[in-house]
Amino acid sequence: MSGETTTDTLSPQGATNSTMIPLVTIAQTISVTTISPSSKGDTWTSVEPETATSTDTIDEIMVSFAKKNAEECTCGVSTLDPEEDNHITTRVVGGSVATPHSQPWQALLRYYQLPVCSATIISDLYILTAAHCILMMGDFQRKIEEKYKEKVLNANGSVDFGQVSVVLGVHNTANLTDTEVVGVESFLVHPQHQVDEVHDTNDLALIRLASRIKYVPHIQPVCLPTQGEQFSSEWGLIIGWGQTEFNGSKSQYLKQAKVRILDDSICIKSKMGKHFAESPESMICAYKY
């Protein structure tokens, strides 16, 4: 299993207690949180580049994240134990339902009020998701135009920002009670994002929100890893609203599964290693034991 690691570019200092890493499969975008023995979290410097614009690159914004002097806030803190259920499975497909709101940094990206992908809160102004999720919305737009035989909103399948929203504090996608729905101002897709038949490389995108997030216990930012930080052999949780069975429907409830993060050298020797070896710097490898 491979996906996109954020350790090369997401690097505010001092946030090491809990780290969110988006993990991408063909069917869905899910996330990995390293499990920490401490529930207190860490103090970090807020990462919100006030001067960032839609023309800035992801690298420029991340540099701004690291350099920005802002007020301190707490990240990676959940009031609930994500491993409260001792029967957490090791499979996303058919995995176990997560404890509601135990992953307060988990967000849901929607288009026309339909679930598209998982996303992660990294500041009160930015959400991290996968680049292919942005492309999926463009494909959806083209299908709408083809169905109605007209350019209903935008030409050539371009995404209509007015129909994009991010839902915060959500567990059940069919019940948005106590959630916050935020509009989107712009997207920034990784400039080296590439797609082939097997996987995406540099599958990252930043979403700038139309308004700032107001943090409450069940809506919180995740901690970002320091540059070069290693997670080999650590346990993580993959979470998301992905398919409940192979080629099946997506889950209505947030689900989770436990996996071990593998060292690059081990991953390259595995069955899927040839794909990982093509771009190890932009992927993370995890395994279910």
Overview of this structure, please?
Residues 92-289 form the Peptidase S1 domain. This is Peptidase S1 domain-containing protein. It holds the Pfam family Trypsin. Belongs to the peptidase S1 family. CLIP subfamily. This protein is α+β, with helices and mostly antiparallel strands. The chain has one domain (2-287): Trypsin-like serine proteases (Thrombin, subunit H, Beta Barrel). The chain is built from four helices and 17 strands. The protein has helices at 58-67, 131-148, 264-268, 273-277, and strands at residues 2-3, 20-24, 29-34, 42-45, 72-75, 96-97, 106-111, 114-121, 126-129, 164-168, 180-189, 194-195, 200-201, 205-209, 235-240, 255-261, 284-287. The strands form four sheets. Strands 1, 2, 3, 6, 15, 16 and 17 form a seven-stranded antiparallel sheet that branches. A six-stranded antiparallel barrel has the order 7-8-9-14-11-10. It is globular and about 45 Å long.
Structural domain tally = 1
For this structure, the quaternary state is: single chain
Helical content class: 10-25%
CATH homologous superfamily label: Trypsin-like serine proteases
- Low-pLDDT stretches: 1-55, 66-72, 85-92, 151-156
CATH topology: Thrombin, subunit H
GO molecular function, one term: serine-type endopeptidase activity
Protein name: Peptidase S1 domain-containing protein
Pfam families: Trypsin
GO biological process, one term: proteolysis
